[in-house]
Write a structure and sequence with these properties.
This protein is an alpha/beta fold. It has two domains: 1-99 and 259-354, 3-Layer(aba) Sandwich (Isopropylmalate Dehydrogenase), CATH 3.40.718; 115-255, Isopropylmalate Dehydrogenase (3-Layer(aba) Sandwich). Helices cover 41% and strands 22% of the residues. It is built from eleven helices and twelve strands. The protein has a ten-stranded mixed β-sheet, with helices on both faces. It has a two-stranded antiparallel ribbon with strand order 6-7. Strand 6 (136-145) and strand 7 form a beta hairpin. The chain is globular. The two termini are 25 Å apart.
Length: 354
């Protein structure tokens, strides 16, 4: 029997609340299927750990994690710990250390999910954003010069390597080819005359190998406008680290809200474990109150199942979330219901068992 070993970093705030429901769903699916099982190992890393130990994770944290099949992350961030410390010390350390260079974010309006846009049908919002996840604007290369003086300067350097750009762009082309979908390249070459011109050149070069893929290119400001005005024009989107971060949060806003936003950080070669997470943040003000919506954490379980080659179960999880949203019997307050966080996992499993 196949055993998937999963490292669980529930993290901060509502992270433990929502991750418990995702674990419940994944374990239940394994039991229903019978051909595989899951083995969870929990790690208490995050901001509380930092306040005790002075670091977000142990020095040998990556060595501890490297032999797992996947990492399941809840949320990172808590008052009293600077955001740059929490981000750099855990999430980005794992992404970069394990070369998780693909950030895969589905932006899909599920049946029954709320949408703030007028006259938009479910099928109009159905895209996958492929975001470069290891360098670019978030490479954290720079310097502070003349600190504390009137001449103080902050330098922040984007890093765009040929290897880094080409592999994420090629992944997006392959995905578009496999699924028979269009591919939209998003950049800002008119203002960023080195990095984004370079990115666009590589997009065109790689595109010569995929003549069957229909492509278009947009400036990031125009893409932001069309995400709202004409979301149906997007199917597969590829973009840089910063632009992908911003566009996918906009995508979450038009596709049911942050409570329905999941993300995968992939090392496609599987040399290192990939990491799956809801991307809604830690929301410490509602932690432990049963108010958090765990559907994004459960959606990230669907992504994990897809990555494990269990695509049929991955699709069933999405279908079950849609059924839950349409039936409206077991929803958390953000979706207009009265259910508690710890009721959602059981409700999803009940739907899957029908």
């Amino acid at each position: 029997m196949q055993t998937y070993k999963i490292a669980v970093i529930a993290g901060d705030g509502i992270g433990p609340d929502v991750i418990d429901e995702g674990k419940k769903v994944l374990a239940g699916i394994a039991e229903m299927d019978g051909s595989f099982k899951v083995e969870f190992t929990d790690f208490p890393w995050g901001c509380e750990y930092y306040l005790r130990e002075g670091k977000m994770m142990p020095e040998d944290g990556l060595s501890i994690l490297k032999d797992f099949d996947a990492i399941y992350l809840g949320a990172v961030g808590y008052p009293g710990v600077p955001d740059d410390v929490s981000l750099q010390g855990l999430l980005l350390k794992i992404r970069k250390g394990f070369d998780e260079y693909i950030n895969l974010r589905p932006v899909k309006l599920l049946k029954g999910a709320p949408c703030p846009l007028k006259d938009v049908k479910e099928e109009d919002i159905d895209m996958i954003v492929v975001r470069e996840n290891s360098e670019g604007e978030y490479a954290n290369v720079g310097s502070r010069l003349y600190p504390g003086t009137e001449q103080e300067i902050a330098l922040q350097t984007g890093v765009f390597s040929r290897k880094g750009c080409e592999r994420v762009i090629r992944y997006a082309y392959e995905l578009a080819k496999k699924e028979g979908k269009t591919l939209t390249n998003v950049s800002k070459a008119n203002a960023l005359g080195y990095s984004m011109v370079f990115w666009n050149e590589i997009f065109a070069e790689v595109g010569k190998e995929y003549p069957e893929v229909e492509t278009s290119s947009l400036m990031v400001d125009a893409a932001s406008m069309f995400f709202v005005k004409k979301p149906a024009r997007f199917q597969i989107v590829v973009t840089s680290n910063l632009f992908g971060d911003i566009l996918t949060d906009l995508g979450a806003a038009i596709a049911g809200g942050m409570g329905l936003a999941a993300g995968a950080n992939l090392n496609p070669e599987r040399k290192f474990p990939s990491m799956f997470e809801p991307i809604h943040g830690s929301a410490p003000d509602i932690a432990g109150k049963g108010l958090a919506n765990p559907l994004a954490a459960i959606w990230s379980v669907s992504q994990m199942l897809d990555f494990f080659g269990q695509e049929a179960w991955g699709k069933k999880v999405i279908d079950a979330i849609e059924t839950l949203l349409q039936e409206k019997k077991t929803l958390t307050p953000d979706l207009g219901g009265t259910a508690k966080t710890d009721e959602i996992g059981e409700a999803i499993l009940e739907i899957l068992q029908r």
